[in-house]
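Loading example: each entry is read as four labelled lines plus one structure line.
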Amino acid sequence: MDSLDDLNRRLKAFAVQRDWEQFHNPKNLAMALAGEAGELLEHFQWLTPEQSAALGGDKKEQVALELADILIYLIRLSERLDLDLVAAAYRKMALNESRYPVEKVHGDARRAEEYGS
Amino acid sequence: MDSLDDLNRRLKAFAVQRDWEQFHNPKNLAMALAGEAGELLEHFQWLTPEQSAALGGDKKEQVALELADILIYLIRLSERLDLDLVAAAYRKMALNESRYPVEKVHGDARRAEEYGS
Amino acid sequence: MDSLDDLNRRLKAFAVQRDWEQFHNPKNLAMALAGEAGELLEHFQWLTPEQSAALGGDKKEQVALELADILIYLIRLSERLDLDLVAAAYRKMALNESRYPVEKVHGDARRAEEYGS
Amino acid sequence: MDSLDDLNRRLKAFAVQRDWEQFHNPKNLAMALAGEAGELLEHFQWLTPEQSAALGGDKKEQVALELADILIYLIRLSERLDLDLVAAAYRKMALNESRYPVEKVHGDARRAEEYGS
């Protein structure tokens, strides 16, 4: 079975067992996800880009668990909104392919609106 | 093949073709992820919790694409940090199971540190 | 003296004394500010809107200190970027006045782009 | 009059005139603030720390207006929560002075909990 499907099933059971689905509306889950994204930032805020690419040991595991928290809320949000997260990712990648053609953006990472398309 | 593995492969190719891996250090990717989490919030900020659970049409698709953006950066970060995102999610769920025993937290969603364990 | 000017002076001295200005480039400070905004969210994520308006005691003080952290990074960022934060706020308010005329948006809090100007 | 007091008064009038105070509960305002912090990140995410310190022209004005948005929501939140933002900033600075003594943290920007105090 696909890893996201298994996680989804287990996360839903976890919430139901604790009677936490009453708190898991999309507004609250979006806040929880963004809160975890904030914790992720805190691990990197004073590091240089080079240091951020060379995490080891404890720090790396802490970051792994932050990413896990974000994935968990992403899966919960998709379930609550009845969305197919993976299908949405493929749709978004197709949009990105047409927005950022290789020959136009090679080596240049401005935001889409800054290319003055 | 697992959906996250396929997405990972395609996202890496997308970045390599555009010579964007130079920008994709973990510090920058963490910022990009948190920026997308901020966009997600903007969809929900003035909605009541009830309204947030009843999105339809265009708005729902916009939210789906925000979640896709977050997933995309989550996958990229895991790849750049050489982390197994799904394995980390299982580790985190095991931690949550022991931190929040059903009999202790039933119907009560305070944060872990507020349970005064 | 204006409160923001006094805070600015003290925050700069705090950083200089610790030799922390080397870390206080705008990129890092933007991350630190957004990390604090994430902590702010965590206080409110499982509360109803009504509960969020009725904080008391300890919780209220914790939120006050999160707001303080955000103000502190806002002042530091403005100083590092050589920006006048209060003047920018007046400019932004003037923009908001013209974007959201009273007769058009009364009682309706959609985002600007959703008014289909 | 102090700049924050004047801004506070004008922001409150702006919301009252539009009948927007109904949306301005602390939960919603915290989300709006964090959404703006996300927009701030997007300006800096692909820049090096050095580039982030050398913004000019349009980009600098865009960042100034993002900082203004954050200040605006910070002031609104403080008003809705009946908090004195500047007094909280002084309390937080006093805490920081005792948490980060100069002789202990000189030139070292780890997070407080990482000093293993």
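The radius of gyration of chain B is 18 Å.
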